[in-house]
Amino acid sequence: MDCKDLMIGDWVKVEEPTETVKARVLGVHKDGVINYEVFYSCVRATGQIHTDYVSPIELTEEILVKNGFKKVNMTVDGDYRHYHLHGVCISWEEQSSFWYGEGDIEFKYVHQLQHLMRLCGIEKEIEL
């Protein structure tokens, strides 16, 4: 990933020495290094890693629903859905990307949803 695509608070996957974990970005450095935090059971750990070892988390319908988005309609064939949260409408096509607005903004990852929500003035912590 490019560090320019990340903001503090974004959720990403980090390749640690023994496993890949979901982590929250705590800081972004111009040299491509990020500071991050990981939660293991009840323990919080922090680290630093180059973005070569960081990847985005795929956004799913399940993540939207878990975070309060409500499914409001679907086409007859069931392949197109709309999700609403605080006035933000996101569209999803089966086996495709998510869309915001009139199809102007396409996104596929959790950190991109976080950026969209911040731009829309929605202060919400995303749960994975």
Secondary structure layout:
Blueprint: E1 11-15, E2 20-28, E3 33-40, E4 43-50, E5 54-55, H1 61-66, E6 70-74, E7 80-85, E8 88-93, E9 98-100, E10 105-107, H2 110-119
Antiparallel strand pairs: 1-2, 1-5, 2-3, 3-4, 6-7, 7-8, 8-9, 9-10
In short:
The chain is mainly β and 128 residues long. It is built from two helices and ten strands. The chain is elongated, with a radius of gyration of 16 Å.
Structural features, described:
Strand 3 and strand 4 form a beta hairpin. With 128 residues, this protein is mainly beta. Helices cover 12% and strands 43% of the residues. It has two domains: 3-55, SH3 type barrels (Roll), CATH 2.30.30; 61-119, no CATH class. The strands form two sheets. A five-stranded antiparallel β-sheet has the order 4-3-2-1-5. The chain has a five-stranded antiparallel β-sheet with strand order 6-7-8-9-10. It has two helices and ten strands; from the N terminus they run E-E-E-E-E-H-E-E-E-E-E-H. The mean pLDDT is 86.
- How many beta-strand segments? 10
The largest sheet has its strands arranged as 4-3-2-1-5
What count of structural domains? 2
Give the H and E element order: EEEEEHEEEEEH
Query: Please, what is the average pLDDT?
Result: 86
Q: What proportion of the residues is helical, as a percent range?
A: 10-25%
Low-confidence stretches: none
Instruction: Please state the CA-atom Rg, rounded to the nearest Å.
Output: 16 Å
